[in-house]
Design brief:
Helices cover about 60% and strands about 15% of the residues. By secondary structure, the protein is of the alpha+beta class. Helix 3 runs antiparallel to helix 5.
Length: about 290
Amino acid sequence: FVAARGTFCLLTGEGFLRPGPFVAEDLAAAFAAGLVFVLVNHACVHIAIALATHEPVLSSLMDDLRFQLLTGGVLVMLAPLVVVADAFSAALVPVLILPVAAVRISAQLATQREYDALHDGLTSLPNRALLQRELDRLLREAEAPGDGVVVVLADLDHFKEINDTLGHHVGDLLLVEVAQRLTAAAGPEVLVARLGGDEFALLVCVQGGVGTHAEVATTLADRVLAGLREPITVAGVRLDVQASLGIAVSPEHGTGLSQLMARADVAMYAAKAQRAGWAVYDPELDENTPQRLA
């Protein structure tokens, strides 16, 4: 409010604590003050949220501003209709509540659809599309020497038996609990995504000087396995949940999502075969060659 009032007074020459009569020439200053109010308000809120959740400030702020400016802009364009309706009869003004509400609801539905397109419906974790977008961003930003990206693919062991024995509804409850544990164990700097079924992926950027990429990846894998070690009680059944993790790092093992995921998948099946918990991609373990496919 102070920033908005200061903007209005700066543009109109009015005293800060001495408001004068509003005239037509003040309309541009009022629009500018409103814009400052929206920008300052949302910047303060989203910077606080981003600092608390360790999310990128700029992308979060821009996403919300797009929604607010779109809906706010449409509502502002309806303002002349309110004036005309009021000039004809004040009783007509409430009628405009319906189109105003429709604009707001439509914008909220569009935002929700965009969110649903990038998140898993069961666990609310990011999905493969959001994982792809974040990996592309991290690869672009990893420009300093020693920077890299770690991809960890996690697959639950014997999940099919749980589904077949206890039912898919129990399997869904188990996946929700596993998603929460993975997120808690991985930490706020790691993106945890669900790829489908009982497959999850973890994505983290490694800054130069932090340590080797493999060390960061194996430390992350140990944290994840430790987070799953405690039995999970679902629908009155106590289950010991184990997972096999495959690790691939960029740029050593690839520079794109498909390549990194394929090699993390090879490492994951090696971990399953060795019952080792996790394994780092090794070209000697990879039998998937064009010649073999042919």
